[in-house]
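Record 1 of the preview.
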Amino acid sequence: MSLDFAGKEILLARVDEAVQAGAAEAITDALRVTLCELFGNPDIQLPECVFDYRADHYCRRLLHHDDRLGYSIMAMTWAPSQGTAIHDHAGLWCVEAVWAGEIEVQQYELMEQHDNRFRLERRTVMRTGIGSAGSLIPPHEYHSIANPSADRPAVTLHIYEGSLDRCSAFQPLGENWYLREARTLKLDAA
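->
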């Protein structure tokens, strides 16, 4: 179930407009611009629960799923020093934006694949703060994300092409080879 918050209708109107921009690259470009423009808007106040974190896992909270256009908006909360394994987005485009704190994203490129073994090479590492946004468009979707702060939580907004309820995570085998594991993603309660 999605969460209500002040200014949700403002956010949804702008996102609805952006996701109708055409192909994936045009959509993600429009969403990045939209999110960067909306960060300073005092009329948009995310629900208080998205600022609550858990020490044992990052929190995923559904802000909205649009049945008509198919996209979903998640708020993710990161405890200090918390992050993910290298993972994909199951073929869905995504725009990720920092709402509070700071995030470090490491992007990887798929170089080779043999069954469930993937050779991934790290390409870029980006550390971004409040008001910044980036995108992932398949096949360039392999990445990890983490809160680099040792003492402050972080909150990110993620807009996905659809409902992201599963993905693949990649466990290191050595020499840039990783074993792909299927993951089911869960939502946290408010």
